[in-house]
Amino acid sequence: MMTVSKAAELLRTLKYTSEVGNGCIGEALDVAIDLLERNTIKADIDSIIMAVARETGVTENEMCHMGRHREFAEARAIVSWLARRYTPMTMTSIGVRLGRTHAAVFNYIRMVNEWLEEPRRNLRGARITTKLINEIEK
Fold first, then answer.
1. CATH architecture label of 45-137
2. Against a cut of 0.85, is the pTM above it?
3. Quick one: which of 37, 35, 53 has its CA closest to 132?
C-alpha cells in the first residue's frame, strides 16, 4: 500500500522530471501535492494504543492480552477502528498486535461503526472514538 508521503514524492518527481511540469498539468500536480501533504495524518498503532489507554483507563497489557471483559473489548474495538482508518495496517497485523484474530478485528470495526452511526448503542465508546478522531485529525 502506498503511503500519502510516497504519493506526494512521486507526484513531485513526475512534475520535475518530465514535460508535464509546465502549464495546467503542472499546476494540477502542485494542487494535488499540497492536498496530500496537508491531509497527511501521522498515527501509529503504539500512539493509538496509548491514547485509547489514556481515555479508557484500560492498560496496554489489559487491552492486548486480557480476556473478554467489556472494558477491555471496548478499548480493543476503538484501537482496531482507529488503526484501520489511520494506519496502513491490515486487520491481520492489527489483530496480531492486540493478541486477536483478523476476524475479531473485523467485528470490532463493525461494532465501532455501529456506535458512530447510533451513539445510544454505546455512548461512552462513541464519545471516546470521536474525541480521538478529532485529536488525530487536528
1. Orthogonal Bundle (1.10)
2. no
3. 53
**Each residue of 3-40: pLDDT tens digit?**
656 666 766 776 676 665 566 666 766 766 666 655 55
Take residue 116 and report the three cell numbers written for it: 458512530
Q: What's the pLDDT tens digit per position in 91-107?
A: 999 999 999 999 999 99
Question: Which residues, at least 6 apart from 54, have a Cβ–Cβ distance to it below 8 Å?
Answer: none
> Which residue, chain included where needed, has cell 492486540?
98
State residue 90 phi and psi, 5-degree precision.
Answer: -85, 165
Domain boundaries of the chain, sorted by first residue: 4-38, 45-137
* Angstrom distances, CA of residue 58 to CA of 5, 12, 94, 103, 109: 33, 43, 18, 22, 18
Q: Could you tell me if residue 99 is left (phi over 0), alpha (psi between -120 and 50 degrees) or otherwise beta?
A: left
In contact, 127 and 80? CB cutoff 8 Å: no
Asked whether 115 and 129 are in contact (CB, 8 A), the reply is yes
